[in-house]
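Risk register update: the risk that structure generation would not scale has been downgraded. Supporting records follow, first protein first.
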Amino acid sequence: MVVVLAGHSIELSHAKARCNAILFAFLPSQYGGDAIIDTLLGLYSPAGRLPVTFYDRTIVSTRDP
């Protein structure tokens, strides 16, 4: 499992290929640590929609302009 703390979407295909789960916590508040632990221990099951889109790396151009 990977826990990601970031303020924006990032490319996670490397983690997706090697992990069974990714928990994207964005920038949690002072109770973020408690929420992450509750989720990892199975006391809370997150569900819902994300406020950002995570695109697959294949749509990103690697050519220089």
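Supporting record for the second protein:
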Amino acid sequence: VYEGSIAGAFGNRKPPSAAYIAMGPVLYQDSKGTWIGGAFWDGRATGWTLGSPTAEQAQGPFLNPKEQALPDAATVVARICSADYDGISFELVWGSGACAAPDAYDLVARSIAAYEGSSEVNPFSSKYDLSFGSGAKLTQEERRGMALFNGQGGCKACHPNGKGGLFTDYSYDNLGVPKNPENPVYDYDATFVDTGLGGFLESAGYSPDVYTAEIGRQKVPTLRNVALAPGPDTVKTYMHNGYFKTLEGVVHFYNTRDLLPTCPGDYTEAEAMAAGCWPAPEVEANVNHDELGDLGLSPSDEAAIVAYLKTLSDGYGQ
């Protein structure tokens, strides 16, 4: 969870990665009733309007009062049309009169989506990718981690891999992630509960028989670049609310969530790991008890999976 353009204003979720997001589909329900696609953790950038979840997601941060906090779409367009982007003007790309067009803000979003779909954002340049040719070779521990990822760990069910794999099935799940007591949202809304996809579907007017089953479910993110950070001193956070600060903690949680006792309070990840417990889920409804929580992995198994996840960082060898 990060501070926006206004000092002291924080969002209530950890922003998901923009890398590989452009390859996701428009939000839909498959034949089994499973919701797939869309953007944002709760899927509210559906793609139903622009045909692109990525473009619709791009329109959000400009106007969000906790992010860029600009007053309206016209202000965004005016700033872009008066700026110089290395000599590439908005109207040079979209045609004369584009700045005054009724859909100018949509064109802004489509421009951002085009970049987010480019090879610069989606380079497929990790050690894992290069291992399919002659560019890299996974270590014995990394290969063992991959075998556990695909087998006993069950990770592949939601994060399919393989050559060119995107490591997400674009579905939604409630993993039983605890409330993050460090989230600034509780400074101004002590009763905040993130209801995820179910909350969006409710606000969109769906009936209780549709949205109730989705309460607490968050979008399954890609695992590409899951270990990548801007620098060695940057604390990387995980899950929709940033509860986890280490991959080791994430994997241990998946492995032991249903085995360890419930912490007697809102413990942080570090506090829970030290105490040998896990806090109660932020949202109790619809927690996935079928695919995680008691995986039977040893400490060395957990370490091997983490080692494998670290091979998914782009820019290997650069």
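The chain is about 30% helix and 5% strand. On this basis the risk owner (M.S.) recommends closing the item.
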